[in-house]
Amino acid sequence: MTYRVNQDDIISVDQPLNGRQRQLLPEALGACYVDREVIEPGIAIAYSSYTASQNFVEESQIETSEARLSLTFGLSGQSIYQCKSALADDLVFSANHATLTTFGNSEGERIYQEGQKIDQFRILISGSSFDRLSIPFPKEAKDVAYPTQQQHALTSPNTLHYLKRLMTLMHSNQPERPLEKHILVLNLLSEQLSLLQEDRQQYQPAFHHRDEAKIISAKQYMIQNMSLPITLANVCQAVGISESKLKQGTKAIYQLSPHQLLLQIRMEKAWEQLMTGSNVSQTAYFVGYQHASNFSAAFSRYYGFSPKSLLAQKQ
């Protein structure tokens, strides 16, 4: 059994001396806490340390008018964030990597495994600060459809040096050197945004007509073979294109990853099948799910209600 944690289970403790707030999870889950500190309006830092004594899921719900940028530095272990939007890919935060993610309004859950120690450091930026800090993403939550990983890269030695100093200052018992903390946060943010800009300059997907035709063929292959256990390698081999070009192409033409595109195809066909008389088990098999329960879960995440609910409405 997997324990579920919601916002009502979290205990918040203010620490006025150093301006931090500590959030504690129930003791039954192990030693799990998050320390948060506001650097300036619109910019905060957070250090989380989780050592789970059992498997658990932490529910997350964001309701805000501003978009958010999260720069996460994995120090040890690995955690996974799953958004309830079926179009969103899972976000993986792993040790020795820096992950840049944008959020709007969203619901999801973070998954933690028993016995694993997970330490992470985050810099959190609100949309109101995007223009001032030259952050190249939409600043309003309504313009961010679902959480999106913008960058995932190995942490450099220079970054680790900044991080160690910043965490030393953050966990000092004295409210010392606030200007140095501020500078370190901006240095870390500037470094990652520069890396992002370099990656974008290298990524110039100038598609030839033959590439566009192959991407369209890839979608047709997915439609024709949706009942089979399709993999990225299957699609690439069938249409004669590399995995990187397939990913670039589906993003450019359909604004979806290959995984999201296949899911959209399956869910739209599932709706059609259910509305034309197929039951849940028949529909699940038709669109490529071996187990009806897995299909029902995917359908519910995609549409917000179960296939059985759709059938009941139809009647």
From TrEMBL:
Keywords: Transcription, Transcription regulation
Protein name: Transcriptional regulator, AraC family
SMART domains: HTH_ARAC
Domain of life assignment: Bacteria
Domain (HTH araC/xylS-type) ranges: 216-313
Keyword Nucleotide-binding: no
Family annotation (PANTHER family): REGULATORY PROTEIN PCHR
Keyword Acetylation attributed: no
MF (Gene Ontology): DNA-binding transcription factor activity; sequence-specific DNA binding
